[in-house]
Design goal:
Low-confidence stretches: none
Shape: elongated
CATH topology of the largest domain: Immunoglobulin-like
Structural class: alpha+beta
Number of strands: 8
Mean pLDDT: 84
Radius of gyration: 19 Å
Largest sheet: 5 strands, antiparallel
Number of domains: 2
């Protein structure tokens, strides 16, 4: 974020900063302590470009138009265990437009009910037969979940500089 803040100060022209300020005035911050307000141009620039950098996209110097999104096509989490192999897949009910970021939390006790300390795993792999296998992404970050643990997964749609809030928090229990 520091590098992006420096870019805001040194790389952008005054006209580009004005464009970001105008675009940011239409975007509300997330409520904190029941208060929200319009973003600053710098906060909007850093917010969009930091998540773009996370998925290896170029920095946008000009503020993008607001993007509307269709409903998230990711509809559920499928956990299976066969022949000692773990499989983690997401059900995909329709066409995928843009990128879908996948976030996960470490496997935890079956008694846990809330997402806690999750991290970006990667982009949703292309679905095959209505399912997208993200086992490698998850296992590379957290290792293989054990039977009886709960797995939390969230997805976020991204397109042309816009993004949704993490729409799905999957809390599926892997039965013993």
């Amino acid at each position: 974020m520091g590098a992006l803040s420096k870019m805001w100060r040194t790389l952008l022209t005054q006209e580009q900063r004005r464009g970001w300020n105008a675009a940011a005035a239409k975007v509300q911050s997330r409520p904190r302590l029941e208060q929200a307000g319009p973003l600053t141009g710098q906060a909007h620039f850093v917010g969009i470009n930091s998540s773009r950098a996370r998925i290896n996209r170029e920095v946008l110097l000009v503020a993008p138009e607001r993007v509307s999104f269709p409903p998230n096509p990711v509809t559920g989490l499928i956990l299976s265990h066969a022949n000692g192999q773990v499989s983690l897949k997401l059900s995909v009910s329709g066409p995928v437009e843009g990128d879908i970021m996948v976030f996960g939390a470490a496997p935890c006790s079956a008694g846990r009910k809330k997402w806690r300390h999750g991290a970006f795993l990667g982009l949703l792999p292309p679905p095959v037969g209505g399912e997208s296998d993200f086992t490698e992404l998850y296992v590379a970050r957290y290792g293989k979940p054990e039977r009886g643990q709960r797995v939390f997964v969230r997805t976020r749609q991204r397109r042309r500089g816009g993004r949704t809030t993490p729409e799905m928090s999957a809390r599926w229990f892997w039965p013993k």
